[in-house]
Amino acid sequence: MSRDSQPQAGPGLENEPALLVGEDYAVFPNQRLPALDSPCGEAYLAHDLRMPSEPRYALRCRRDLQPRLEVVRGISKGDDLPFACPLAWAAVPWPDDGREHYVVVLRRPDGPRLVAPGETALPKLREDFLKRHVVPQLVAVLSELHARQIGHRAIRADNIFFADESRNSIVVGECVSEPPGLSQPVIYEPISPGMALPFARATGGPSDDIYAVGVLLVMLLNGGDPCAGMSDQEIMQSKILHGTFGTLVRKARIPLSIMEPLRGMLSDDPGKRWTADDLDLWLVGRHRTPKSHTLAHKAPRPFEFRGEEYWHLQTLAHAMAEHWDEAVVPVADGSVLAWIKRCYGNDVARGEFVELIEQLLAPTRRGGSAEDTQLAGLLMAFHPEAPIRYRNLSVQPEALGRALAFGGDKGALKDDFMAVIESGLALTWLHCQDSMRPEFVPFSRAVETVRDLLDRSGWGFGLERCLYELNEAIPCRSPLLDRFLISKIEQLLPALSRIAEEEPQELLPVDRHIAAFCAAQIKEIPRNALLELSEEPDSPEHRLGILRLLANVQRVTGGGSRELGRWVLRCISPVITEFHHRPYRQKLAEQLQKLAEQGALTHMLALVDNEDTRRRDKQGFELARKHYDHAVREVAWLRSGGLTSEKHVTRGSQQAALLISSVISGCTLLALTLIYVG
Predict the structure, then answer these.
(1) Which range among 175-179, 508-512, 580-584 shows the weakest confidence by mean pLDDT?
(2) CA-CA distance, 129 to 255, in Å (whole number)?
(3) pTM of the model
(4) Most buried residue, 283, 339, 382, 561, by most Cβ within 10 Å?
(5) Dihedral sign from CA coordinates of 225, 127, 160, 394
(6) % of the chain at pLDDT higher than 90
(7) CA 399 from centroid of its chain's CA atoms
(8) Which three-class secondary structure state does DSSP give residue 41?
């Protein structure tokens, strides 16, 4: 944004550089607002060009995380909501590193945070204040979001602001700068997402928000965390054993009048958990009796693990997942199976459960070690609602793609991710569920697709392809495109054109990530393009594959430029030199040069990928080679004295004598015939 087009944003900002986000917002990269920082976003001053008096701020999101841009499009821009509502977003080059960052502009709260990030002490609020000023605001925001099937997934004390300095009402903080649930402490998360790695939590929805509101209210009534001093593992074990309500409320002083909504909001069964509408009804005095939490089933005898006795399958599963290497031993030596048979072998009602355990412990899987896959399957049977757990990986099925994007393409998580897919553990998780839900169907199809892609190692397949198939909006991770955020196929050729224009490249314009990105976004990419790209990088086939891929992108999206055409022309030089006919090769180079100047990749491909021309060139070359070989033999024969050798002279004399005698005999016969006839 130029200075001339920048409006007056306030005293002292007239000369400040600004970035344009959308058409209506200016963001000032030199004006930090640390008090408004999010865990994964730095806050900066923003200015609304249409309504200069309205307070705005912007968050610059982390590049290694995918913000919830789809939520920005789905959220209402209503000014009456007590919510740091996202107003616009864009990928803009940031001045300090020249790389594009996602920047989201939001409505700015006028008051301070309820509690600073990292602080454990919370303001202890009265029940009547919560009922009049806090809960109605939360209900208003969540009702609006949930009506659009959007979960906030960031309801926590340090993401709540006071509406103004009087502190009589609140504003709910933003929820778009990071993946859902990433920064949520374990205590705010229901049991299943709480057990998953923070970046491997499902998108979730309204019931997760209501749960977080219940936790928040307990903390505000208690003036702090009732589980302070407990580790995340201890909190999860307590939630599994005693239920969330029992875990939080038994150590907190909560007024009896608010027990009813807390019990409803903190239900560990999402189907029984209250909704925003239920909470709204409670505010106006209508009561609904929440259903009690059903405690985990207690085994007839305990299983000893790491010196402790476990009476419940769910708590044992959680402990074994936290201490994987030690848990492999009792699974491999059969002690777990023996315990299950002793506890449930004669229980008719749980006969299918015992059979399932035996099937899961059968060493018939591929991918990962047999012991690890057996333990992973066992944990699913013990606690079906828990995430998929395999060594270092703990992921909710819906978040497999998010886990791969954050850390599953490198290090130990890469091996764990591949083992989960290749061994079929993701589908085993579905088999262990009590009932099949509609959302499981697309997940099952996605897993089968990804499993097939992992089996193929060529360009356009493997982990790179899985990354883009499971994350539709993720930017291309190619090192070549590092300073850009290319999330749509239409952006690829313009980005490559800018690279070619600004930095003349000796590198090739396509790598494994670009090939996988294109194959995921353009389903009709020719198969032979990916096969050619899988050849050696210096081979003519690989270079032709590059042109074929980019030409198909141009066919679908348009775009291209002279600079990109020149770059591609340089890279396909081995394809040109593969033609044998020198005059044609020179003519082809001239024609390609003209097309490259126009950026016409599709026409360039048509010119070099003509099968008739290639066949004629090959046939002509074979004929010329035969003529050449014959000439070489003739020259060699002459140089070896073949024309003057005794053998050759004798043979030549004999042939000459035969010819002469034949002529004389013929002439004599002709003369005698004439004499006789005459």
Answers:
(1) 580-584
(2) 13
(3) 0.86
(4) 382
(5) positive
(6) 53
(7) 10
(8) strand
Task: For 378-433, list the strands marked E by DSSP.
Answer: 388-390, 393-395
Take residue 7 and report the two structure tokens written for it. 């409006």
Answer yes or no: are the C-beta atoms of 519 and 460 closer than 8 Å.
yes
First-to-last alpha carbon distance for the chain, in angstroms, is: 117
User: Residue type at 79?
Assistant: D
- Cα-Cα-Cα-Cα dihedral sign, residues 646, 651, 652, 653: positive
Tens-place pLDDT, residues 131-166:
999 999 999 999 999 999 999 999 999 999 998 888
User: Do 375 and 324 contact (CB within 8 A), yes or no?
Assistant: yes
Pick the more confident residue, 346 or 10. Answer: 346
DSSP assigned state of 398: G
Q: How confident is the model at residue 431 (pLDDT cuts 50, 70, 90)?
A: confident
Strands (E), 94-220: 100-107, 160-162, 170-172
3-state SS track over 301-366: EEEEECCEEEEEHHHHHHHHHHCHHHHHHHHHCCHHHHHHHHHHCCCHHHHHHHHHHHHHCCCCCC
- Length of the chain equals 678
Q: Please report which helix (H) or strand (E) contains residue 299, including its range.
A: strand 298-305
Which residue, among 578, 607, 606, has the nearest Cα to 590 in the 3D structure? 607
**268-299, pLDDT tens digit by residue?**
999 899 999 999 999 888 877 666 666 677 88
Q: If you search the block for the tokens 């693990």, which residue do you land on?
A: 305
The residue among 378, 184, 398, 136 whose CA lies nearest residue 280 is: 136
Q: Return the residue matching tokens 């004669």.
A: 346
Q: List b or e across 467-492, with b for residues whose CB sees 16 or more CB atoms inside 10 angstroms.
A: bbbbbeebbbbbebbeebbbbebebb
